[in-house]
Hints:
The chain has four helices and nine strands, in the order H-E-E-H-H-E-E-E-E-E-E-E-H. The longest helix is centred in the first third of the chain and has 51 residues, at 8-58. The relative contact order is 0.14. It is of the alpha+beta class and 270 residues long.
Amino acid sequence: MRRKAFTLIELLVVIAIIAILAAILFPVFARARDRARMTACGSNMNQIGKALMMYTDDNEGVYPPDRFLVNGNLVPPYTWKRALSKYTSSNDVWVCPANPAVMAAGSVRYGAARIGDESNIQTEYKLDKSKWLASCYGYNGGYFPTESIYPLRTVTKVKDPAGLMVIIECRTANPDLGPWTYSWTTDKKGTLTAGYSSGPVGVFFTHNKRMNIAFADGHSGSLTLPEVYGRPGDGKDYWGVGNPDSNGYVVPGRNKANWGSQVVASNEYW
C-alpha cells in the first residue's frame, strides 16, 4: 500500500512551526551563551582582583601604576598587567571570551598594528607571542597614574576601596582608561578611529549591557554603564578622577574638563 505524502499545506504548516520555534529559541540560546561568557569573564575579573591584592601585600600596600618606567622612560612601557600577571594562573585570565578586541590596535604612538597590551612590544616579549597579554581589560589611569607622574597610590589613601573601580572591560590596547575615552571610537576588534563612542563598538564592552569590574579592595562584580558613570551632575563617581592635590594625589571627584560633550552618544545604554 502506498504511503500518503504530505500535502503542500501540511509541509508549509510544519515549516512555519519550525520557524516559530527557532525565532523563540535562538534569542534564548544567545542570551544563555552570553551569560556563560559573562560568567567566564567574571571569573577572570575575580582572579585579577585577587592578584591586585597580592601585589599590594608584596609592595607595602602600594597599588601598581598603569605604566612603569623602563630604563627611565615609557617607550615601550611595562604595564600593570605585567605586574599582576605574576600572580595569575595563566595569561588566559586576560581574555574575555565575548570580546573580539583581544589584540586591539595600538595608540597613535605605536601605530595601528594589533599589539594587544602595550607591554607586548617590549624586546623580551616582542618575538614570542605566546607571552603576549590580551587587551580586554583596562586600568583606572586617572586614579592610578603612570609611575613618576604623581606619587603612587597606597591602600591607606583610598577612602572607599569597595566603591572605587580599578579595572573595567574595554576594547583598547591602552592600559589606562578614564572618562576621556568617551571621545574615542573603535571598531569591534579595537581599531582606534575618529569620533565618539557608539554603543557596543566603542571603547567599553558589555555583557547584556553590563560590565565586569574589579574594585580597589579586590572584590569584583558587574555594573551597567549608567551605574559606572552616572550622568553629569548626579554626583556619582566610581572612577575617582580629579586634579592632584598638594601632595600629588588625585582628589576623588569628577574631572569636569573630560566630561561635557564627551558624555556618551550611546543612548541605548541609558
